[in-house]
Write a structure and sequence with these properties.
mainly alpha, globular, 5 helices, two-stranded parallel sheet, about 50% helix
């Protein structure tokens, strides 16, 4: 296998997680974090997930979902870190807001 072919194979391996991807609400994803997920986030992102800025919180949430799909931590981390912000479009469903969330109560 040539070096170029090897690089393409590595890229295909990193993209294979998208097969059959079902978007989930961000809030539900975060609420599903276990202690093991939090430890893994801390080890890879070097911060508690609650200390991460919003875009990195989204990356941490995707990292957890990829781990649950069977990716090793280091590989899941590489995947989420190489995604552009535009590529996050459609990976999560917007959290539903209650219909009266913006209206003042009488």
């Amino acid at each position: 296998m040539t070096e170029d072919t090897s690089q393409v194979q590595k890229q295909d391996d990193l993209d294979s997680w998208r097969d059959g991807w079902e978007p989930l609400p961000m809030r539900a994803t975060i609420e599903s974090f276990t202690g093991f997920d939090e430890v893994a986030i801390h080890q890879m992102f070097r911060k508690e997930w609650t200390e991460l800025p919003s875009t990195m919180t989204a990356r941490a949430a995707l990292f957890v979902l990829l781990r649950r799909k069977g990716l090793e931590d280091a590989k899941a981390f590489r995947v989420v870190m190489r995604l552009t912000l535009g590529e996050f479009e459609g990976l999560f469903i917007k959290d539903e807001q209650p219909e009266d969330a913006g209206s003042p109560e009488a």
